[in-house]
Amino acid sequence: MTDFNKHSEVLVDLAAVQSAESDQRDASREAHLFIDKPNGQWEPYWWRINEKKPRYTFDQTSPIVDQVSGEMERAEFAVNIKPAGGEATKEIAKTFDGLVRNIQRMSNAKDIYTLAGTNVVTAGLDGWLIKQKFIDDDSFYQDLVIEPIANFIDSVWFGPFKRWDASDAPWCIVLEAVPAAKYKGKYSDGSGKSVGDGKYSQAYYHKGEQVVIGQIYYIKEVPRELLLMTSGRVLEATEAEPILDELAAAGEVVKERRTRVKNVVYSRLFDGGRWLNEPQKTVFNQLPVIPVIANFKVFENKVLWRGVVTKLMDPQRVFNYTKSREVEEAALAPRAKFWLTLKQMLGFEPELATLNTNADPIQRYTPDPLVQNPPVQTGGAAVNAGLATLSADMNGIIRQTGGLFAANMGDNPGLQSGVALRTLQNKGDIGTIKYFSAMERAICRTGRILVDAIPKIYDKTRQVRILKEDGSFSMTVLNQSIRDEQTNRIVVINDLSVGTYDVTCSSGPAFQNRQEETVSTIVEMGRVDPTVIELGGDVLFNNITAPGMELIAERKRIQLFNAGLIPPGQQTEEEKQQAAQAQQQPPAADPNMVIAEAEASKAQAQQDKVVVDMNIAKSKEQRENFKVQLAKQAQQFEQMLAAQEVITERLNTQAEALKFLREGLGDTVPEGTPDAEAFNRQIGIILDAQGDTAA
Prior knowledge:
single chain; alpha+beta; three-stranded antiparallel β-sheet; six-stranded antiparallel β-sheet; 22 helices
């Protein structure tokens, strides 16, 4: 058992693994050099002895690597997370899905997978790692990121393992070549010695000064006490003890206790002479270094792997040699010559001197009596037919060994139908599916490690981005504590630490290609069953990549939701809230009753309108009569005024006459006499008449 606190033991274990895998690593390095190095497709011996002869490379291998890796690049590897037990829910599984997609997007994982896929097709081995990092220098929150590993063949070494994903390895070391200046600035206490990479030779020599350091990830078994709460949750005692009183107050107490061992991954940096830091505890319980191993096999207790290049080397080298020999023989073969006598040349020397360059349709010569036949042409390039045959054979062997043929690559125009070509392409995929499977397994393990680590990284209340498959996103608050109004208990919303989840990975066409396939399939099904389009209109419109289709899809979904055609399991959080509010409202009336009530209201309104119209007509008639009466009364009043004016004028005349008479008589009419009394009575009558008129 290795003591991971002892630097020397770690170096001994590393050297032992490097020695045991030296043949496999050398084969993988040779495969990379075969593709990348200028003279890599020639055996060193034949390259040396043919120094003064043609040494051409007719690369038929790289297109095969590009074909297989290109198919992998066009494919989409999707991580799928499903509830498996405990308090796991579909909603939390969707949250995990969105978080994993977001981590992959932020890490540019697509590019990492593409590069690893090309290297795996080439040499059979590559991979990447997962790290925990702070979001930025000023943040207290950490995130998980996927990072590539440069030169995986020379950099990554696992402890003994027998599983295709090295998940049973007890440790893993990742080597990194650091520029000497950076090393001195960052590790001033280091020894300056490089960690050995297990290679005995170098293919490239012009490199800067570097120091190779290593980072070891090792699994440490840590005992822990588990608490089973009355709510069904399982908590670790070290985390739950400080809050047991609060949990008890909320009605949640410990139901059972048990002790078990858990794996915790630690990491530590070192160089060739000493440790560079103290052991660091990580959030992982599995080694966060993920290998992609193609053609994996354990034979004689030894792990084997290879890429597509390994078995293409021999036919490719023979092909390069024979083609180069063909070029050489064709170049050195003498040109075709005309044979004629001196007599036949006489008089036509200038024309014959340009025989190989002029474009004259005829050539004249002088007949020679000693030679019956005209000049004849003999000789010319004659390439060894065996070389041409051998080159053609090697080209065919390369295609067959790589599992790719002209027909299954679609290169057979006019000779087969589209269905036949697709059938041949599917047959050809059987030879390359192993590389897809290796990538699927590695990405699946990446998903498992992320799902295990996410609850430890996202353990506080924080808002995160949930990325959907189509590239859209939503913001979700994790670990939000709220009080349940019914139970009066504090519950945590979006608690990722609750429940267990399964992780699977599938590969298929990219999302945009699947969108086109979805649209085509729905339309075809709609021809058989039109209700498919009616019920799935929002899905259909969402998968059409044209401007404005998102708005149409949104309107269609609202229509389907209002009609009650969206199942509860497919509703968004907003739709669920709307549905809950609708349930709290009074039930909708019967449509038939609503129609009947509307008809009754309409009839009543018409009846009321008739009554109102009658009242308006009656009021109008009354107004006309009233106007006539007013006109009559006004006329009578005017007549009365005219009469009163006449009377008033007469009285005024009488009053003036009496006044004049009284002034004329003066005091001649004694008081108390009959004349005087009559006179006074007459004056009183006139004055009373004036008063009545004035009134």
